[in-house]
Each structure stands twice: as C-alpha cells, then as structure tokens.
Amino acid sequence: MQILLQVQNLNKNFGEMKILKDINLEVAAGEFLTIMGQSGSGKSTLLYCISGMDRATSGTISYDNLDLAGLPDAEMSEVRLKHMGFIFQHSYLLKNLSIRDNIILPGFKAEMVPREAVVENAEEYMKMTGIDHIASHTINEVSGGQLQRAAICRALINQPSVLFGDEPTGALNSSTTEEVMDILNAINNQGTSIILVSHDAKVANRSARIIYLSDGKIKDELILGAYTGPDAAREEKLTDWLNEMRF
Ligand SMILES: Nc1ncnc2c1ncn2[C@@H]1O[C@H](COP(=O)(O)OP(=O)(O)OP(=O)(O)O)[C@@H](O)[C@H]1O
Ligand SMILES: [Mg+2]
C-alpha cells in the first residue's frame, strides 16, 4: 500500500483557539475518504491544512513523500496546481468565460502538456461528466449540477493524484447529488484518491472510509470498503455508526 498523505501531530490554532488537536492520519494512494463531524468541529480547517490551502500551526504533512508543510508558498501553490484538484460547495468559476475555457484555464497555467492536449482532455472530461453539449455556455447559463460537473472537470484537468472537496454536493438536490457522486466514484475507480468533507450520510456512504472529527480530534473511523453500488447493509452500518456518534 502506497501512502499518499501522512499527517503527524497536526495542530492548528486561530489566535488563542485550538481548532485542530494533534491529528494523525494516513491516506493511501487511491483511497476515497470522507471527513464527517458537527459544524465547527474543524473539518474544513483540516481539509485546508492537509491540502496546503492553509498552514498548520505545528506538525508535519507529507504528501507523496514531499514535506508539504515545509514548502515555501510558491512551491506549495505549484504542488497544488499540478498534483491536486479542488471542488467546493460553490465552485468559483469565472463568470465571463465559457464552461470549456474555465476548465482548460488551470491546464494552460500549469503548462504540463501542450495546449492542444489540455483542450482534448477537457473535451474528454466534459463527455465523461455529460456537459459537452454546454461547453460554450457561460456559467450563468447552466444548472447547479452542470456547474459542479464543470468544477470536477476543471479539478481533473492536470490529472491530479488527489481530489479534495469541501461539501461538493452541499448546494445540490438529492438526485443531482447522486449523479455527482457516481462521477466521483468513477474517477476514484480509475485510481484518483478522493478526500471529501461532508455532512451528508449519502455522500459518506459512497466512500470507502470515514473519519469522524469532534472538537478538533479524530474521534472514530469507519471502514466500509470500496463502493460497488447501493447496498442496504452498508447503509445500515453507516447509519448505526453515525447514531453512535450522535450525528
Ligand atoms: N479563519 C478563521 N479565523 C478564526 N477562526 C476560524 C477561522 N476558520 C475557522 N475558524 C473556527 O474554527 C472552528 C472550526 O471551523 P471549520 O470551518 O473547520 O468547521 P467545520 O467543521 O468545517 O464546520 P461546518 O460544518 O460548519 O463547515 C470554528 O470554531 C471556526 O469558527
Ligand atoms: Mg466546513
């Protein structure tokens, strides 16, 4: 098992407030992990620290054998651009650009492959997520679900080894959530690691492993195994566990 991300003794303070307390976590390459917990428990803070969007107060974060926490800002940004993808509740796509141009932009910026290859990859991802027919629309001419699919395509454009998402389906209705999760499961099955933060048991049910954060600490962990489709026993196990957590 290849370790993609290793977090050791991670602490994060905001002023006097201790938000993350001695977090230790390992994520294997190809894993699909969901971070759950009450509002204010530190889920987003943890995601931002482990993805290099924010700086930890202390502790080490090793990403693909790279000392992420020790990197200067410019190098950290480069690792994020070239090796990580991000999807949020409201993904901030640029208003005056088409869906296609929003997707290819980080690819042009990273300059990892020729521009023609970036455009080809974008077309492929738009087909995969079912938005190729709206590629030329601007972002206010598409639905919320289509926008989130575009955000996934953009997050994938540099073929990252890991996708991070903070409530990526938080603004979607339940059937659109299912469709977006189908796409994320397919991406994970192709080998991309996924780390999500979610309040939604339906989302967590799609991941192989769930950690539960309480007051800035990892309180418990549930291993469900790879998602292979709807499974009542699996859902029941997750529901029981969440009840035990008083969630
Ligand atoms: N930039 C900041 N400055 C000061 N305090 C912060 C900052 N960001 C987060 N916090 C505090 O840290 C704690 C954890 O916040 P965080 O956003 O990680 O929670 P969360 O688990 O993601 O909650 P939610 O489910 O509501 O999104 C909260 O008490 C919050 O007020
Ligand atoms: Mg949050």
Bound molecules: adenosine-5'-triphosphate, magnesium ion
Q: What is the overall pLDDT average?
A: 96
Task: Give helix % range.
Answer: 25-40%
Strand content: 25-35%
Overall number of strands? 10
Number of helices: 8
Overall shape: it is globular
Strand order of the largest sheet: 6-7-8-3-9-10
Query: What is the makeup of the main sheet?
Result: 6 strands, mixed
**Could you give the order of the helices and strands?**
EEEHEEHEHHHEHEHEEH
| Termini separation | 31 Å
Give the full name of the CATH homologous superfamily.
P-loop containing nucleotide triphosphate hydrolases
Radius of gyration: 18 Å
Structural class from helices and strands?
alpha/beta
CATH architecture: 3-Layer(aba) Sandwich
CATH class: Alpha Beta
- CATH fold-level assignment: Rossmann fold
Number of domains: 1
Characteristic key phrases:
transport, ATP-binding, alpha/beta, four-stranded antiparallel β-sheet, 8 helices, nucleotide-binding, globular, Putative ABC transporter ATP-binding protein YknY, single chain, binds magnesium ion, six-stranded mixed β-sheet, Rossmann fold, ATP binding, 247 residues, binds adenosine-5'-triphosphate
